[in-house]
Amino acid sequence: MDYGKNLFRKMQYEAVSGNFVENLNSNVNMLNNNKTGLCDNEIVDIDEQNEIENNQLENELRRGSSSNMLVSQSFYTQERFKVLLAFIILVFSFFISTISLIFTHDRLPAEKEPLPDIFLDNVKSVDYLLYVTEIQIIIVVNLCIIIIFFHKKRMIVAKRCFLLLSLLYIYRAITMSITVLPISSSTYYCSPKKSSSFLEVLQRSFWVFTGMGLTINGQQQYCGDSIFSGHSTILMFAYLVLDEYLPKKFRWLKRLSLLNAILGMLFLLISHSHYTIDVVLAYYITTRLFWTYHQNLNLLYNNNLNSSKEWWIGLFKYFERNSARSFPNEFEIPWQHHHQESQI
């Protein structure tokens, strides 16, 4: 009896459900038909709207690209001018140091005996090692020029090197002219002293300038350039540049340049070309100036440069304004690079 009632209820439910499903399906079909008609019209409108938006986006991208290109070209021009200006300052500073050398040469003490020196007094002079040191300088300087030329950020690296060397030569011009020491070698040839006019001083300075202050080419026969050593300065500066701007995979070259600097300064002392204090001061002044400059870069980027008290901070701010915050040390072939922005 219960089974019959349940079967009857099931048949009623299925009948009602069938009608409901049938009605529901018909309504869905009607909605789909209406929706299909609406979508056809809407698709046309959407396609037109998308086309309009795409055109607007392309126009904005063109304008943005043109604007970025103008900004990049302007930035590149400014950096190129800064490099040229830094180079002019370097040439001027080096020439001032040669003038200082000429004046110092004419003020040398009459006595020919060198001052007591803890190293020179205990090591016999080997004169030709001065030429070995100068050959080392020529090699490492040319290596630095090659590294800077192929560096992706050659503009930034070049202007920093020019500016730092300018400061070092200014320091050297001051120190060698303030206190004049007897020459450290008893065998080194010095040109005769002259009571020269200023024009003659300029001519003699230009002669030393064209010889880059080296003895090996016979254009440097003037004495008195003590406190501090120019040879040691260049050796240490070249090492610092290579250590700072060479990629990490060239660690062996960094170590080799450090060894070159140490040996070069040692050869200077063995040749009695400089007092020990000249070499020590050259190391100290060069490294502290180089490291202080690069430490100030961090202060500049963190807007905390007001704590820096160096007298040259104004030059620093001008030359480092808008420079890259940080960059990887990478190389490229300049004439195959088509984007000016990455050359800066």
Automatic annotation (TrEMBL):
InterPro entries in UniProt: Sphingomyelin_synth-like, Sphingomyelin_synth-like_dom
GO molecular function: ceramide cholinephosphotransferase activity; sphingomyelin synthase activity
Domain Sphingomyelin synthase-like: start-end pairs: 223-294
Any one GO cellular component localisation term in the record: Golgi membrane
Protein name, per record: Sphingomyelin synthase-like domain-containing protein
Residue spans crossing the bilayer: 83-103, 128-150, 162-183, 258-285
Pfam families (UniProt xref): PAP2_C (PF14360)
Family stated for the protein in its record: Belongs to the sphingomyelin synthase family.
